[in-house]
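Sample intake — DUF1059 domain-containing protein
Collected from: Mesorhizobium marinum
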Amino acid sequence: MKEFFCGSLVPGCDWHTRHEDEAEIIRRAAEHMRQTHGETIIRETMIEAIRSRIEKARSAA
């Protein structure tokens, strides 16, 4: 399981997602950027910034 925290890219944002598939995390994060942060164009640099911040999920214990 992997996860992405938007706050690592957009300070102050509490949104996060987790999934087994990195591509699904990127898809969800890009959609979040459009809907919440008003990004109309998701450039390759944004995708790379998201990808570089995806981490192995911490255990819920």
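Post-analysis note: The chain is about 40% helix and 15% strand.
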